[in-house]
């Protein structure tokens, strides 16, 4: 039997040697570049991969263990504190970041390019897919252009100019590219967003919720132009840039067929039951067990996005006066009484009720404060299913662009372009009406209105990761991050520093410079 077996094997080897085509087989357990782009279903899977990077640790987080990047972004600002310095967030907040810091500094750079590479590949290869419906392909290309614009906007916002790559990844041609000027990157972002807006629909059916729309592309363009008009990037205060930003925001406000508006209840806007409501223009979608996040774990247990006293004090009294105004009625014995409702809709504090229990000063031991926004947890005791959510088990979507921001962007840009006209008041007062706060006082100067708008942005978007970029673009970070930070009782937690000659931009990660010596480092690093 052994001899027969050997003979059969030998004959088989001989036959295969004579017929090489028997060896030319395709693997059935994986795809190659040549075999993937064959069906519309494959193209849709590739587009999903372009979206998937949004949930990477370096962008909005969720894929990593106990990760909540979107919430930790706030801790680089005067609003919150990350005591254990996870992902080097507190290094940035305290002005100690370096090219070798790692964490968010290295992962954001790499993940942005990961997303860019996927979008570039999709845009190049989708035309090769047979059987594609041309109308649907146009919409899919629009989504990829929106995402590429978002990834490039994000990376230049933190690092400045970076290599501008519009082709699929190719180590031979791209690995040693120098940095393009930041303005060149932004010009491409605007081009991508304009093309995306022209290709995308106003909305989708229920099965495609979360995909980029025409309104999302237009809203992101408004944010890009607002940043470009701001003092950091517009030191000469060219009012034409402010006017362009105002026009872009107004275009979203006037866009028919979207149904955009303010959701009636500020706190409930951020609950899972109200996801995809009329205020949401674009968000990052989560669904357990396919892909959850750890927002609830971070907010209720880890407290690694702990709010600071400065944020709590920033909320006005219900009568519209700051707590420092003697006429406000502020009572330091009852510091959270009769305050702007957004305070209690965003954070929890000593003497509050949270998860059905009284909150004392030890409940959130880091600063005394906890976060409610983007969490299911609030005053009432949680349901049995939600009482002990672990890492990766939360499902609340993270809102990247919402209609309130469009109103605020318009008010800020229009005020800077022409002053506080009636349209500025109208936009701001819509936001105040939702929470039952008094309208802004008539007759404010441009300078006084600017102060009110900046304050309003801080409290409206607290916990949403925007304030760090706001104080950078306003060039106020050198003041707001050069100070001590405090817990609820006024105890000093640490002294933060900010070097205005260096810290408005992050360093190019050392890991990237090791791979590409042609990447010029940012000044001061």
Question: What key attributes describe this structure?
Answer:
two-stranded antiparallel sheet; mainly alpha; 525 residues
Low-confidence stretches: 1-25
Radius of gyration: 26 Å
Major sheet size, sense and barrel closure: 2 strands, antiparallel
Strands of the biggest beta sheet: in what spatial order? 1-3
**Residue share in β-strands:** 5-15%
What helical percentage do the residues reach?
40-55%
Q: With helices defined by DSSP (H or I, 4 residues minimum), what is the helix count?
A: 20
SSE string, helices as H and strands as E: HHHHEHHHHHHHEHEHHEEEEEHHHHHEEH
**Structural class designation:** mainly alpha
Report the oligomer: single chain
Quickly describe the structure.
The protein has 20 helices and ten strands.
What does this protein look like?
This protein has 525 residues and is mainly α. Helices cover 43% and strands 6% of the residues. The protein has helices at 2-18, 33-36, 40-52, 69-72, 89-93, 104-125, 134-159, 171-174, 182-199, 214-229, 239-253, 295-302, 309-314, 341-346, 403-418, 422-435, 446-460, 467-473, 477-480, 510-515, and strands at 80-81, 280-284, 306-307, 347-348, 353-354, 357-358, 370-371, 398-402, 484-486, 492-495. β5 (353-354) and β6 form a beta hairpin. Residues 1-25 have low confidence and may be disordered.
Walk me through the topology.
Blueprint: H1 2-18, H2 33-36, H3 40-52, H4 69-72, E1 80-81, H5 89-93, H6 104-125, H7 134-159, H8 171-174, H9 182-199, H10 214-229, H11 239-253, E2 280-284, H12 295-302, E3 306-307, H13 309-314, H14 341-346, E4 347-348, E5 353-354, E6 357-358, E7 370-371, E8 398-402, H15 403-418, H16 422-435, H17 446-460, H18 467-473, H19 477-480, E9 484-486, E10 492-495, H20 510-515
Antiparallel strand pairs: 1-3, 2-8, 4-7, 5-6, 9-10
């Amino acid at each position: 039997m052994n001899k027969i077996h050997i003979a059969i094997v030998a004959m088989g080897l001989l036959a295969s040697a004579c017929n090489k085509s028997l060896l030319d087989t395709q693997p059935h357990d994986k795809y190659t570049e040549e075999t993937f782009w064959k069906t519309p279903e494959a193209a849709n899977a590739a587009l999903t991969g372009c979206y998937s990077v949004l949930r990477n640790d370096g962008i909005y987080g969720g894929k990593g263990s106990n990760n909540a990047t979107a919430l930790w972004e706030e801790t680089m600002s005067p609003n919150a504190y990350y005591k254990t310095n996870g992902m080097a967030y507190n290094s940035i907040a305290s002005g100690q970041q370096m090219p070798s810091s790692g964490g968010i500094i290295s992962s954001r750079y790499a993940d942005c390019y990961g997303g860019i590479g996927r979008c570039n590949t999709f845009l190049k290869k989708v035309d090769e897919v047979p059987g594609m419906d041309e109308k649907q392909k146009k919409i899919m290309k629009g989504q990829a252009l929106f995402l590429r614009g978002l990834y490039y906007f994000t990376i230049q916002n933190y690092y400045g100019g970076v290599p501008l790559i519009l082709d699929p990844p190719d180590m031979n041609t791209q690995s040693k590219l120098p940095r393009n000027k930041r303005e060149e990157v932004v010009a491409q972002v605007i081009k991508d967003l304009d093309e995306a807006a022209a290709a995308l629909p106003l909305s989708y059916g229920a099965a495609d919720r979360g995909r980029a729309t025409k309104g999302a592309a237009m809203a992101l363009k408004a944010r890009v132009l607002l940043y470009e008009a701001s003092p950091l990037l517009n030191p000469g205060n060219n009012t034409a840039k402010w006017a362009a930003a105002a026009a872009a925001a107004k275009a979203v406000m006037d866009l028919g067929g979207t149904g955009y508006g303010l959701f009636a209840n500020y706190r409930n806007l951020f609950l899972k039951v109200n996801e995809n409501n009329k205020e949401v223009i674009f968000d990052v979608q989560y669904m357990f067990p396919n892909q959850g996040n750890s927002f609830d774990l971070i907010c209720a247990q880890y407290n690694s996005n702990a709010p600071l006293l400065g944020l709590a004090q920033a909320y006005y009294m219900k009568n519209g006066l700051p707590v420092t105004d003697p006429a406000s009625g502020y009572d330091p014995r009852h510091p959270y009484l009769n305050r702007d409702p957004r305070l209690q809709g965003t954070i929890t504090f000593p003497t509050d009720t949270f998860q059905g229990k009284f909150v004392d000063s030890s409940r959130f031991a880091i600063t005394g404060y906890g976060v409610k926004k983007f969490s299911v947890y609030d005053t009432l005791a949680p349901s049995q299913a939600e009482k002990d959510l672990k890492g990766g088990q939360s499902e609340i979507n993270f809102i990247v662009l919402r209609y309130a921001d469009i109103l605020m962007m318009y008010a800020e840009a229009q005020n800077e372009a022409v002053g506080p006209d009636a349209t500025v008041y109208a936009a701001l007062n819509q936001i105040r009406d939702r929470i039952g706060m008094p309208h802004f006082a008539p007759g404010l100067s441009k300078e006084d209105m600017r102060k009110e708008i900046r304050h309003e942005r801080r409290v409206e978007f607290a916990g949403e990761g925007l304030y760090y970029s706001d104080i950078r673009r306003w060039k106020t970070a050198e003041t707001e991050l050069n100070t001590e930070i405090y817990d609820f009782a006024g105890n000093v937690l640490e002294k933060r520093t900010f070097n205005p000659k260096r810290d408005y931009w992050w360093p190019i990660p050392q890991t990237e410079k090791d791979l590409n010596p042609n990447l010029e480092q940012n000044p001061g690093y």
